[in-house]
Design the sequence.
């Protein structure tokens, strides 16, 4: 399939590389900053562009993978094109892409970082389309890069994105707070690696409610009080108190 | 080594099984509830006992792996014995085992669940001892079951335990909250598996501050507001707000 990629961030990069590897032709990569467009374009053999007036108008698919806030602005500047328009955002309705008619969504449920190589085949891809034809095209495309493709409405997708914030962003922030505690004591943060790995492994095999361990689920008030005394940082203390209460309430 | 294990919970079980496999003789397993003692004892070829007066008094090591709150009570009822006494708790000072003189700590930094098989060799074991002889004995023993043994003072160990609460218990609670959101929408929670696995994998390879993604780190107020509107549960809404603020402050 002939594809134009709009965006050059982590999601755009990982997806363009996966599509290119699957044999699709990335015709152009657009970024407001030409250097960023060039960087991704060179990886996938595409033409880099930094103006929307230069866009190739007869591609089969336009993937909008830009910051949520920039999306309406970019859409408003798009010239008329053939083909399907699809965005990759979790919390934005497909209607952001109107008045273009063949519009849809291609949402990858994963956390992307620049220097991480990912096996795209394992990444759940959630698609939505305004017509049967668009759904069929996005499904066919999605299945060339992922073995985990699902049709999901925008109403449900935003809850999926919300759950992902808890399971990924907030989880990662817990690791960050743990690393601050370890660093302050001069203990290597990466001693936590087997604990982090096993906690995640349990959550993928078991119900996380059953997997819960620690002082809060036992409501071990002595340990909870001692831990709070060790925390000088009021922000960490507030988080400790709120999450311990929440775990306790869940397991009452 | 001849070892008596006091306790029959998850930590006691995983540790007794690992010690038994490494060739040590588990002489007795004590639990207040004889059925629990029997269950673990049968796994490691030990004698189950439910009274502290029945304890074998000339073992080389007594491992106290009971609930933190029960520990002082059990210690106070212990008959005089030879050998070293060691507990497995993260937040309890070694002094809880006085007046016995040869006392120490053997703290495994891991989350243990009944039905999970673990490779004990990867688990970091933190030891402490009141004398050089006790340290030497605990180190020798620890190295027979783990390739990740460290000497650490009780003062530092309690910070390690505190960091572990963030990296494991709070992290797992985030998975539990995500699963509640998914369940309410009728979307399979385990679709989050690749996201959970990659988030944890990143945290073991990168600095979690660098690994952070999501609306809070970008301070995408629109998405944050929309997510909060989706949350009917005031507890989840409070957690969402506090953690988003904390991520934002960390990355300002």
Sequence:
């Amino acid at each position: 399939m002939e594809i134009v990629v709009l965006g050059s961030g982590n999601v755009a990069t990982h997806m363009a590389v996966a599509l290119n590897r699957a044999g699709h032709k990335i015709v152009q990569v657009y970024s407001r900053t030409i250097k960023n467009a060039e960087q991704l374009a060179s990886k996938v053999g595409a033409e880099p562009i930094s103006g929307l007036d230069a866009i190739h108008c007869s591609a089969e698919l336009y993937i909008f993978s830009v910051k949520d806030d920039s999306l309406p602005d970019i859409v408003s500047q798009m010239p008329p094109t053939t083909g399907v328009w699809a965005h990759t955002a979790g919390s934005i309705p497909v209607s952001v892409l109107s008045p273009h008619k063949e519009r849809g969504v291609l949402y990858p449920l994963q956390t992307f970082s620049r220097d991480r190589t990912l096996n795209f085949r394992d990444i759940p891809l959630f698609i939505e389309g305004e017509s049967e034809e668009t759904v069929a095209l996005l499904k066919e495309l999605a299945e060339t890069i992922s073995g985990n493709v699902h049709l999901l409405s925008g109403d449900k997708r935003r809850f999926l994105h919300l759950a992902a914030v808890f399971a990924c962003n907030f989880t990662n922030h817990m690791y960050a707070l743990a690393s601050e505690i370890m660093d302050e004591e001069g203990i290597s943060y990466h001693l936590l690696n087997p604990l982090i790995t096993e906690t995640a492994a349990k959550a993928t095999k078991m119900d996380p409610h059953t997997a819960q361990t620690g002082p809060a689920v036992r409501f071990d008030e002595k340990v909870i009080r001692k831990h709070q005394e060790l925390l000088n940082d009021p922000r960490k203390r507030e988080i400790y108190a709120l999450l311990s209460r929440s775990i306790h309430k869940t397991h009452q």
